[in-house]
Specification:
Shape: globular
Number of strands: 5
Largest sheet: 5 strands, parallel
Distance between the termini: 15 Å
CATH topology: Rossmann fold
CATH class: Alpha Beta
CATH superfamily: Response regulator
Helix content: 40-55%
Number of helices: 5
Structural class: alpha/beta
Radius of gyration: 13 Å
Strand content: 15-25%
Number of domains: 1
Order of helices and strands: EHEHEHEHEH
Mean pLDDT: 90
CATH architecture: 3-Layer(aba) Sandwich
């Protein structure tokens, strides 16, 4: 198993693919999911060291997913990505920080170098 494992949940497959390629270039083992239920099913077995989480998705919002990760005592670094109102991402950061999660905000659309910098700092 790779030292750095990235689990992505984003309902936009093209964006997940961009994140995957960038992370693989940094020697991450990567799994891309497009729905929260798929993410939750893969989370335990994949044991990510880093998570990229879209805050606004059709089936569940990122705040609920952060709360789910809190319940599981997640030790991964979480990059919350959003192109919508930053308030949602800040709520996720606040919830996570209050519960001991390490959360960083990544505003969409982000540049590849911003994503790369965030992934490198998560190592």
């Amino acid at each position: 198993m790779a030292a750095n494992r990235l689990l992505i949940v984003d309902d936009q497959p093209a964006l997940g693919e961009i994140v995957r390629r960038t992370a693989e270039g940094l020697d991450y083992e990567v799994m891309v999911t497009t729905h929260a239920d798929q993410f939750m099913a893969e989370y335990e077995n994949f044991d990510p060291t880093t998570i990229v989480l879209d805050i606004v998705m059709p089936d569940i919002d990122g705040i609920e997913l952060v709360a789910w990760l809190v319940e599981r005592k997640c030790g991964a670094r979480i990059l919350v990505a959003s192109g919508y109102n930053n308030r949602y991402a800040k709520m996720a950061e606040t919830l996570g920080a209050a519960k001991g999660l390490e959360i960083m905000f990544l505003e969409k659309p982000f540049r590849i170098n911003e994503l790369r910098d965030a992934l490198v700092s998560a190592e």
